[in-house]
From TrEMBL:
This is Fused response regulator/phosphatase. GO terms for molecular function: phosphatase activity. Transmembrane segments: none annotated. Pfam families: Response_reg, SpoIIE. PANTHER family: STAGE II SPORULATION PROTEIN E, STAGE II SPORULATION PROTEIN E-RELATED. One of its GO terms (biological process) is phosphorelay signal transduction system. SMART domains: PP2C_SIG (SM00331), REC (SM00448). The modification 4-aspartylphosphate is found at residue 67.
Length: 415
């Protein structure tokens, strides 16, 4: 009588594995059952394939040892049905046979058998097969547990991503709400704003606000980091640092260079943040057409005259929040009837073609000339479309713009 050592089979686990013995010979089943029980396994028995299938459905054995030759359903057919019923876990299948032909072995493997034992069964060989089954089942269980943990982790990540997407949508709505108006008309001047973030939320912000009965303030900024300056310039009059109350109790605006200097000191000395931003701030007198402007590291505004000529405005300037004692130069412009000033972020001029060539100022000027007859939103949309077409539909950075247009006189057509 063969003997199995439970210390060497590796089957004496906390939860003993269940072995299903399938053989029409009761004596053969009992012989194997005794040895398996001594080795630390739980054993159930079946005399035929149909009974074995019922036990598989009810008990879900870890290991099946089945005779090949049985009345009715053969061990080969039973093996095929056993494989078909498995879904979430693996069962190890050993065929008992007196056959040793290679064609028979190949047929058994195709049916789903993992191992073969030749009758009469050798104790040493059975021990080896069981050791192999323990390794395979152990690896399968480890993989199944890892997959379960991975699925649970992915589920949590999906929940986190969904929450993050909701937060980003809320942040986007908040950012968009900072731009309270997209259009404005002040005397002979039409103001139009554009904001196209590359993602959920962007670092660009544009806006305008009335100063008094004849002046309006306009700004365009591109923040590297968080939008610290957004609320400082787009909030109500009590929070807008550009505004001040005169001795007569009326609102007025500080000079543009002073505003940029104050923002720079606030960023460096009080907020002490790593964020900085580039900016253009303008103070427009919409009765006279005079405009005072400061450029702080932002792309150069483009002034398109009524005859179509384009002038580059500004000397560059320093970003806000980088240098403690930065000074900002104020420029003075006069916008005549038919003139317009276009201020945009670098997301427009840095749009790249599929070959990696940036659009640049020359490309922007060409777009402005091509679209000289368009105004307001139509012009802004056409500029965006042209930039997207140039970049092959790819947009890597936010695009924002402020458009200031003075209405044309009937005798001043575009050139």
């Amino acid at each position: 009588m063969m003997t199995l050592d439970p210390q060497t089979t590796g089957s004496a686990t906390q939860v003993p594995r269940l072995v299903l013995l399938v053989d029409d010979s009761r004596a053969q089943r009992r012989t194997l059952a005794v040895q398996l029980t001594r080795a630390g396994y739980h054993v159930v028995e079946a005399a035929a394939g149909d009974e074995a299938m019922r036990l598989c459905l009810e008990r879900r054995p870890d290991i099946v040892i089945s005779d090949w030759m049985m009345p009715g359903q053969s061990g080969l057919d039973f093996c095929r049905r056993f494989r078909e019923m498995q879904s979430d876990r693996y069962g190890y299948f050993i065929l008992l046979t007196s056959r040793n032909d290679k064609k028979d072995i190949a047929e058994g493997l195709r049916a789903g058998a993992d191992e073969f034992l030749t009758k009469p069964v050798s104790g040493a060989e059975l021990l080896a097969r069981l050791s192999a089954s323990e390794r395979i089942l152990g690896m399968e269980e480890s993989l199944r547990n890892a997959n379960a943990q991975l699925s649970a982790t992915l589920g949590r990540l999906r929940e986190t991503q969904a929450a993050l997407d909701r937060d980003l949508r809320e942040a986007q709505r908040l950012q968009q709400s900072l731009v309270r108006e997209r259009h404005g008309r002040y005397g002979e001047f039409d103001l139009s704003l554009l904001m196209r973030p590359a993602g959920h939320i962007g670092g660009d912000l544009v806006g305008f606000f009335p100063i008094n009965a004849r002046r309006v303030g306009l700004f365009a900024l591109d923040v590297a980091g968080h939008g610290v300056a957004a609320a400082l310039l787009s909030g109500g009059t009590d929070q807008n640092i550009a505004l001040q109350i005169t001795e007569l109790g009326l609102y007025d605006a500080r000079p543009p260079a002073e505003i940029l200097g104050q923002l720079n000191r606030l960023m460096i000395e009080e907020l002490r943040t790593d964020a900085y931003f580039t900016m253009v701030y303008a103070d427009l007198d919409f009765l006279s057409g005079q405009l005072r402007l400061v450029q702080a590291g932002h792309p150069h505004p483009m002034l398109q005259r009524a005859d179509g000529r384009i002038e580059r405005v500004g000397q560059g300037g320093l970003p806000v929040g980088v240098f403690p004692h930065a000074e900002y130069e104020e420029l003075h412009l006069a916008l005549a009837p038919g003139d317009r000033l276009f201020i945009s972020s670098d997301g427009l001029t840095e749009s790249e073609s599929p070959r990696g060539q940036p659009l640049g100022e020359e490309g922007l000027n060409a777009i402005l000339r091509t679209n000289a007859t368009l105004r307001g939103d139509a012009l802004l949309e056409s500029i965006c479309w042209s930039a997207a077409h140039y970049a092959g539909g790819e947009r890597k950075d936010d695009i924002s713009a402020v458009l200031i247009e003075r209405q044309k006189m009937a005798e001043a057509p575009w050139g």
